[in-house]
Design brief:
- A hairpin with a 2-residue loop joins strand 7 and strand 8.
- By secondary structure, this protein is mainly beta.
- The chain starts with 10 loop residues before the first strand and ends in a 17-residue tail after the last strand.
- Helices cover 2% and strands 52% of the residues.
- A 4-stranded antiparallel beta sheet has the order 1-24-23-22, with no helix packed on it.
- The protein is built from 1 helix and 24 strands.
Length: 302
């Protein structure tokens, strides 16, 4: 990969054709990639080196998985955060989220270097700006939710810079990636536009940071992953043989193997004929290493 004029293309790693694939997470101890099919209400695990796959059925539309340091995950379901234990195949509710907004659901998340989780919510009909941005952290009394920002139709991202001082979040239908200053105590300030993605390049879906602070943006209705420098300049792009590209996770021994989720949701027969593997898991080799996968920190009760 060198520049925009010699654009590489991702290949299919796992031909699963999920309706709404999202939220890839690389678990290095398993050499496996976890991801979800939101509409299919499933959690998937794929082990590339072995070609093995497994799935679990979730109790609702599961939007993301945030790894926890005890080997479980915090899973985002429509009504709140659940503890997902792959070993027990169980989902147990930890926190209600937006119980007063039954038309909303949770959507996309990440973990920062301080062990805090970040996630957004959205209007499930993708019409009203009723979504918000939250963080969650663990205390001796349990998980604590914190509200940070609102006015999102579809809150996506989020992603945190390598030094933990910047947070990025998208409002997908409006084509905007925002950047915030993030303090050590988890407060957000100085919201500003990082990138306005032109409509002809698609809509910004999931974003992640690499080890040098570049932002990798998957594009809904854009068939690409686009990489932006910390100054917001597009430095590279990767074609993906799926129109709706949703998120990237970096894996492998050097964290330069990108795994990309995608979706079939809303695509016409004509588009599916052009991109028959839409909804599958794709992969490409990046020229930058991703960040290590952080985990939500647990505090022991006294």
């Amino acid at each position: 990969m060198s520049d925009l004029n010699s654009e590489p293309c991702a290949s299919c790693a796992y031909d699963i054709r999920a309706d709404l694939g999202e939220g890839p997470v690389w678990i290095s101890s398993e050499n496996a990639i976890y991801f979800v099919d939101i509409n299919g209400r499933k959690v998937h695990r794929f082990t590339p080196g072995l070609g093995e796959a497994h799935h679990w059925v979730a109790p609702g539309k599961v939007a993301f998985l945030l790894p926890v340091e005890d080997g479980t995950f915090l899973a985002g379901l429509p009504d709140g955060l659940y503890r997902f234990d792959p070993q027990a195949s169980s989902f147990e509710k930890e926190l209600d989220v937006e119980a007063d907004k039954p038309g909303n659901r949770l959507n996309d998340g990440c973990v920062d270097l301080h062990g805090r989780g970040w996630f957004g919510t959205m209007d499930d009909s993708e019409e009203a700006p009723s979504g918000s941005l939250y963080s969650v952290h663990h205390t001796a009394e349990g998980f604590v939710l914190r509200h940070h920002d609102t006015g999102y139709t579809v809150a996506n991202g989020p992603a945190v810079s390598p030094d933990g001082k910047l947070l990025y979040a998208c409002d997908t239908p409006n084509g905007v990636i925002y950047r915030f200053d993030l303090s050590a105590d988890g407060a957000l300030s100085n919201k500003r536009i990082f990138v306005n993605l032109p409509e002809d390049k698609g809509y910004p879906d999931g974003v992640v940071s690499d080890s040098e602070g570049n932002i990798w943006c998957s594009t809904w209705n854009g068939a690409h992953v686009r990489c932006f420098t910390p100054d917001g300049v597009e430095r590279a792009s990767f074609a993906v043989p799926a129109m709706n590209v949703t998120k990237v996770a970096f894996g492998g021994d050097d964290r330069k193997t990108a795994y990309v989720t995608s979706a079939r949701q809303g695509l016409s027969d004509a588009v599916l004929a052009r991109y028959p593997q839409s909804g599958s898991l794709f992969t490409f080799r990046a020229d930058k290493a991703g960040l290590p996968q952080h985990r939500i920190a647990l505090v022991k009760a006294d």
